[in-house]
């Protein structure tokens, strides 16, 4: 699999207050979208998330989001190493993703941009 980059996942209480801080730090504007009841702002290497506590508790267990060239290739490699697929692959507002638990227990999201809107 080709890993193209990593995004850090940060749960925040007030997305509107956090976005300008991370826009300044990353030197780029946020792309905002909703994933169910969770509001997300993608800002450079950061995914800021805000929403109901129960949802954030689950999302905070994912260590990072790894940008990959192709989620299907990642899926094949993850199966090969014995990872457990927790969710996906599925389409999201910014591409296709899956969540996997590695054999050591670490949980990561893998995402490509194949289904991303132009």
Query: Any idea what the radius of gyration is?
Result: 14 Å
pLDDT under 50 segments (min length 5)?
none
How much of the residues is beta strand, in percent? 35-45%
Sheet having the most strands: 8 strands, mixed
Cα distance spanning the termini? 24 Å
Explained architecture:
The protein is of the alpha+beta class. It is 25% helix and 44% strand. The model has no long low-confidence stretch (mean pLDDT 90). The radius of gyration is 14 Å and the shape is globular. The chain has an 8-stranded mixed beta sheet with strand order 2-3-4-1-5-8-7-6. 25% of the residues are buried. The protein has helices at 15-26, 53-59, 71-80, and strands at residues 3-11, 31-35, 38-43, 46-50, 64-68, 84-92, 95-101, 107-112. Strand 6 and strand 7 (95-101) form a beta hairpin.
What is the secondary structure topology, with strand pairs?
Blueprint: E1 3-11, H1 15-26, E2 31-35, E3 38-43, E4 46-50, H2 53-59, E5 64-68, H3 71-80, E6 84-92, E7 95-101, E8 107-112
Parallel strand pairs: 1-4, 5-8
Antiparallel strand pairs: 1-5, 2-3, 3-4, 6-7, 7-8
InterPro entries: Glyas_Bleomycin-R_OHBP_Dase
Protein name: VOC family protein
Organism: Streptomyces tubbatahanensis
Give me a quick take on this structure:
The protein has helices spanning 15-26, 53-59, 71-80; strands at 3-11, 31-35, 38-43, 46-50, 64-68, 84-92, 95-101, 107-112.
Task: Output the keywords.
single chain; 118 residues; 8-stranded mixed sheet; 3 helices
């Amino acid at each position: 699999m080709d890993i193209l980059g990593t995004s850090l996942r940060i749960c925040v209480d007030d997305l509107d207050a956090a976005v300008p801080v991370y826009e300044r730090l990353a030197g780029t504007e946020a792309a905002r979208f909703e994933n169910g009841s969770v509001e997300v702002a993608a800002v450079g290497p950061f995914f800021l998330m805000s929403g109901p506590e129960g949802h954030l508790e689950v999302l905070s267990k994912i260590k990072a989001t790894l940008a990959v060239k192709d989620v299907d290739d990642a899926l094949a490699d993850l199966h090969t190493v014995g990872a457990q697929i927790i969710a996906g692959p599925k389409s999201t507002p910014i591409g296709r993703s899956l969540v996997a638990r590695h054999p050591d227990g670490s949980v990561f999201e893998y995402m490509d941009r194949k289904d991303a809107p132009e």
